[in-house]
């Protein structure tokens, strides 16, 4: 009997769309701009599919079209496509300008966030080190128990982009599929393509720029 369990995780829904509509939703590499009104086509095509809801489809579609690789694909000369990969006309200049503006803004925000996190982690580490008190020496006549050491707060883990020639098989990495990186293990490396088995069990092949350490 076919499973009727609903998919609720956005990454899982995207993986389902990659598998169901491979000519429209591209899992790795350069993407193609989608047809205006594609959500309606998608909702109608999956109307009888119990695995996904319209709400979850809308969220997954929004994540796909706001990703950097999608925004980079919205450029002059590119053709919009429908669910079957059929061209639906060239992009209008205002849509290209909007995509490039959104991409630039998103990249600047990401950079600022990384800088702020690094500064906060450094500040917390320095504060914890400064507040750490030395253990008191026991009195000559009466021994006193040494005070408990002050635990330093561990700095926040910051993910950094991976370097291709430093990666190897069976290495633990994080794959940037959306806003939240997903942990996994490297299975194979071919040129700039890295095959990773996610902790969820799903195997994906991504470019090196989507690998974080």
TrEMBL record:
GO terms for molecular function: RNA strand annealing activity; RNA strand-exchange activity. Residues 101-154 are annotated as: Disordered. Keywords: Chaperone, Cytoplasm, RNA-binding. It comes from the Bacteria. GO terms for cellular component: cytosol. It holds the Pfam family ProQ_C. InterPro entries: ProQ, ProQ/FinO, ProQ/FinO_sf, ProQ_C. GO terms for biological process: post-transcriptional regulation of gene expression. Signal peptide: none annotated. Its main location: cytoplasm. It is found in: Cytoplasm. Belongs to the ProQ family. NCBIfam families: PRK04950.1 (NF003434). This is RNA chaperone ProQ. The gene is proQ.
């Amino acid at each position: 009997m076919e499973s009727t369990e609903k998919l609720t995780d956005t990454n899982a829904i995207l993986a389902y769309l990659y598998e169901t509509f491979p000519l429209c939703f591209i899992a790795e590499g350069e993407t193609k701009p989608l047809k205006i009104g594609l959500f309606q086509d998608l909702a109608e095509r999956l109307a009888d599919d119990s695995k996904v809801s319209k709400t979850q489809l809308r969220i997954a579609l929004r994540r796909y079209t706001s990703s950097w690789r999608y925004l980079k694909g919205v450029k002059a000369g590119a053709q919009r496509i429908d669910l079957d990969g059929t061209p639906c006309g060239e992009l209008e200049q205002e849509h290209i300008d909007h995509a490039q503006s959104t991409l630039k803004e998103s990249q600047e925000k990401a950079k600022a966030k990384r800088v702020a996190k690094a500064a906060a982690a450094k500040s917390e580490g320095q504060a914890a080190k400064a507040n750490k008190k030395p253990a008191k020496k026991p009195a000559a006549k009466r021994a006193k128990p040494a005070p408990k050491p002050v635990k330093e707060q561990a700095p926040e883990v910051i993910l950094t982009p991976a370097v291709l020639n430093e990666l190897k098989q069976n290495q633990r990495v994080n794959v940037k599929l959306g806003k939240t990186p997903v942990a996994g293990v490297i299975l194979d490396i071919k040129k700039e393509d890295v095959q990773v088995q996610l902790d969820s069990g799903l195997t994906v092949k991504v470019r090196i720029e989507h690998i974080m350490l």
